[in-house]
Specification:
The chain has 79 residues and is an all-alpha fold. The protein is built from four helices and no strands. It has one domain.
Length: 79
Amino acid sequence: MRALMRDLAPGAFTYARPALALLERAIDIDRQYADLGLGLVDASVVALAEELGVYRLATRNPDPVRWPAACARRWASDG
């Protein structure tokens, strides 16, 4: 965690506070992909990735396969 915090300062990562609209989108994503069991945190990551146009995500999640699949389905349907 300390290494991550050190890297945030020089801009190695993007930090964004969740706005209410982003949290609402995360809730929608969690409902839409209920079969994946995303939960609010992972769904918020997906919602933020959508908003920022990010298609590659770094995670320490022990099961990172779940939410990129949700991203791929969502973005594929937008194309």
